[in-house]
Design a protein that fits this description.
The complex is a heterodimer of chains A (287) and B (409).
Chain A lengths: L8 H13 L7 H8 L10 H12 L5 H17 L3 H14 L6 H13 L3 H12 L8 H8 L7 H10 L4 H11 L6 H9 L5 H14 L1 H13 L5 H14 L2 H6 L1 H12 L4 H13 L3
Helix pairs in contact in A: 1-2, 1-3, 2-4, 3-4, 3-5, 4-5, 7-8, 8-10, 9-10, 10-12, 11-12, 12-13, 12-14, 13-14, 14-17, 16-17
Chain B lengths: L2 E5 L9 E2 L4 E7 L9 E7 L8 E4 L10 E5 L5 E7 L11 E7 L2 E10 L10 H15 L6 H7 L5 H4 L5 H19 L25 E2 L5 E2 L10 E2 L2 E2 L3 E3 L14 H5 L5 H4 L4 H8 L2 E3 L12 H20 L91
Parallel strand pairs in B: 2-9
Antiparallel strand pairs in B: 1-3, 3-7, 4-6, 4-8, 5-7, 8-9, 10-11, 12-13, 14-15
């Protein structure tokens, strides 16, 4: 850790106010938020101040904005505090202790932080909630999203089950996003992309997944979609964007049929988005 | 009449980019039959100026002027300098041209660009699309060089970059590395900055950095190549703003004025690492709000461009470019110095390739990429190489970037 020459007086006062904050409930919420956001990163080295912030996170009687700012103060310190690793165990323990908080925003924030830390406890409670909705701390779509920070193989079967029988459309989409990291799901995304009866955003999501899992497959399907008069402009625009930015340039330079097809899209009654990406494609592969 | 005009001392078209800081240039009249000697010429901007505008300097330290009169002798190069006219950056590649005039006759013309980092909220559609396209190509559906940036800024690399005086120089190098990689795809691109102390409705749109739903899943328009963004094998970006991106600044962040008032000594100013820097990161849920995942969201680089802009503004305000001036960097050190990587002469990881011991176990990404227009900071930059980014102390220290609201003069 480096020594610092001086401390701004305002910062010292702020730290003192914030550390006293959780004890003095008469202090207004805005004052406490103001003090918390001016503590600086080095409060982690002061046990009393650190406990003050952690207690504020746990304090269910404190106003929500104050608790959320206390969480922000700790997270901010994780970016800047020289010795944050020393207080990390206390921070993570505090987060676990409020993972089942009565307030949904706190639960979302806390389980999000823990998931990004690849915390085993968080992964377990999220999985349990998906398997047994009565135990769920978060809606299934949020749980699926958080699980995708550190995907374990046992999440894939669960996600596939949710795609087949989704509790809601958002959960289906988040399950698909999670499966976009699974090489074994490429055929499913290919099928979804080809299915004209599927929702456009699901087909777009499938295109993104395929671009990562099987890029050559996406390019084949994207080309077909662009040239298919029965496809809508939105999916055509997504497909042409994939071609313009990620196709094999040498192959594209020789593909006169595609070039002519795109040239028609630029001049026909296409949506502004499709016209725009058509112009980009034609400029890149101008003959 | 053949005239050889070199920008940044180079004939390479990729070197024809200038910032506010003057770039060394030269002009030479080729010897040949019928060539008058000496030949009086005037350098000027090609009218009408549709984008960028340049100014001329007869020598280092001279006043800027809109035109420059020179006398050329065949076979003898004449040196001068060119910089962007503050407030008149380019909006497209080659949208400014230097004309070499003899009376009313145009003897030669050289297109170039006043390439400046701008507020992301004010980019033109063309600037936005070129930036997004280069970024998507760098990511290349998860298989591109962006993965190196992702791997550099993780828990192992944390002590190299945070919680000590090297925070600002290290991140200046990190953002410069990314910008140079983007410029390898499109030379006209610069890294825009996100002013987190202001609302930025034009940044958080489907055509630019995406719109977040209630879950924090980011959605892009059908023409935006960022819809194919992948990190760690996982497509998409998770970002849940905890503030109204259309109407408000990030939560609890210091304003620019508050940040610049943190102190006149670097040791005080670097408190910005906590607020506004840390508070800008944590004004969101999602990847950007946690150290291990922050770089998964490319907004990371726009946030850090703004942190760097604040440092640049502070440097300009107080003249803190000289590493030998104590107030320009932490002058008070604990016994034995700051930890490695945070002292002025230290080389910085990962560009130095040093691994093991007190350094991280791997050094992803390799050395700092070259620039066609400048030689600094070198392949293995030291902390001190990042302070004089515009060559205010040593002309050869220029790093070839500038900000739209930080003048040179």
């Amino acid at each position: 850790m480096s020594a610092k020459k001086s401390k701004a007086p305002a910062k010292k006062q702020a730290a003192a106010k914030a550390s006293a904050g959780s004890a003095k409930m008469s202090r207004s919420a805005s004052q406490r938020i103001h003090a918390l956001s001016r503590m600086g990163g080095d409060f982690c080295e002061d046990t009393e101040k650190l406990q003050g912030v952690l207690n504020t996170i746990k304090d269910t009687a404190a106003p929500l904005p104050v608790r959320m700012t206390a969480l922000q103060t700790m997270l901010s310190a994780s970016f800047s505090a020289p010795n944050f690793n020393a207080c990390r165990p206390d921070f993570l323990a505090t987060l676990r202790s409020v993972a089942a908080d009565k307030n949904m925003q706190i639960r979302e924030r806390v389980l999000g932080i823990l998931s990004r830390e690849q915390d085993g406890f968080a992964q377990q409670v999220l999985m349990e909630g998906l398997q047994d909705p009565a135990k769920a701390l978060l809606p299934p779509e949020k749980a699926l999203q958080l699980l995708s920070y550190d995907i374990h193989a046992d999440a894939y079967p669960l996600a596939r089950k949710i795609v087949q029988n989704p509790p809601n459309e958002a959960a289906k989409r988040e399950a698909l996003r999670l499966l976009a990291a699974d090489a074994g799901s490429a055929p499913m995304f290919e099928k979804l992309l080809k299915n004209k009866k599927e929702a456009v955003d699901v087909r777009q999501l499938s295109a993104a997944a395929l671009n990562s899992l099987a890029p050559e497959k996406l390019q084949q399907h994207a080309r077909k979609i662009v040239l298919d008069k029965s496809e809508g402009d939105q999916l055509k625009a997504t497909s042409l964007t994939a071609i313009t930015h990620f196709a094999d340039e040498a192959a594209m330079a020789k593909d006169n049929a595609l070039y002519k097809g795109v040239d028609k899209l630029r001049t026909a009654h296409s949506s502004p988005a499709l016209k725009r990406v058509s112009k980009q494609f034609l400029a890149k592969y101008s003959r | 009449m053949a005239i050889n005009l070199l920008i940044n001392g180079s004939a390479d078209p990729k070197a024809r980019y200038v910032t506010w800081a003057p770039s060394p240039c030269s002009i030479e009249l080729a010897a040949g039959p019928g060539v008058a000697s000496p030949q009086a010429v005037t350098l000027r901007n090609k009218p009408p100026a549709s984008g960028g505008v340049v100014v001329f300097y007869s020598k280092p330290g001279a006043a800027a002027s809109n035109t420059l009169a020179l006398t050329l002798t065949p076979g003898t190069p004449v040196s001068f300098l060119v910089g962007g006219k503050f407030g008149k950056p380019s909006v497209a590649d080659g949208d400014v041209a230097i004309q070499v005039m003899s009376g009313t006759q145009v003897l030669a013309e050289m297109p170039l660009m006043v390439r400046i980092r701008k507020n992301a909220n004010t980019l033109s559609a063309g600037e936005r699309d070129r930036f997004v396209s280069a970024l998507a190509q760098l990511n290349n559906k998860g298989a591109g060089r962006y993965a190196d940036f992702r791997n550099i800024h993780d828990e192992d690399g944390l002590p190299e970059a945070h919680g000590a005086p090297g925070f600002l120089p290290w991140h200046r190098a990190f953002t410069l590395d990314l910008e140079r990689q983007l410029q390898a795809f499109d030379s006209s691109v610069t890294l825009p900055y996100w002013r987190f102390d202001q609302k930025a409705p034009a940044l958080f749109t489907a055509d630019f950095f995406g719109t977040s739903d209630q879950l924090g899943t980011v959605h892009f328009g059908p023409t935006n190549p960022l819809q194919f963004w992948v990190t760690d094998g996982i497509p998409g970006i998770k970002r849940r703003p905890l503030f109204n991106v259309a109407t408000a600044a990030a939560n609890n962040v210091f304003t620019e004025a508050q940040t610049l008032a943190l102190g006149n000594q670097f040791a005080d100013f670097r408190d910005l690492e906590d607020n506004p820097h840390g508070y800008a990161h944590t004004s969101f849920g999602g990847s950007i709000s946690s150290v291990p995942t922050a770089v998964k969201d490319p907004l990371f680089f726009l946030l850090h461009a703004n942190v760097d802009r604040l440092w640049a503004k502070w440097q300009k305000k107080l003249g803190r470019f000289d590493p030998s001036v104590a107030a320009s960097f932490d002058s008070t050190k604990p016994p034995g110095g700051n930890r490695i990587g945070h002292n002025l002469p230290d080389t910085m990881w990962p560009w130095n390739g040093v691994t093991g011991g007190v350094r991280p176990p791997t050094a992803p990404g390799g050395p700092m990429p070259d620039s066609p227009s400048v030689s600094a900071p070198g392949a293995r930059p030291r902390v001190e190489d990042l302070l004089d980014y515009r060559g205010a102390i040593v002309a050869g220290s220029r790093l070839a970037f500038d900000y739209d609201d930080v003048p040179f003069a």
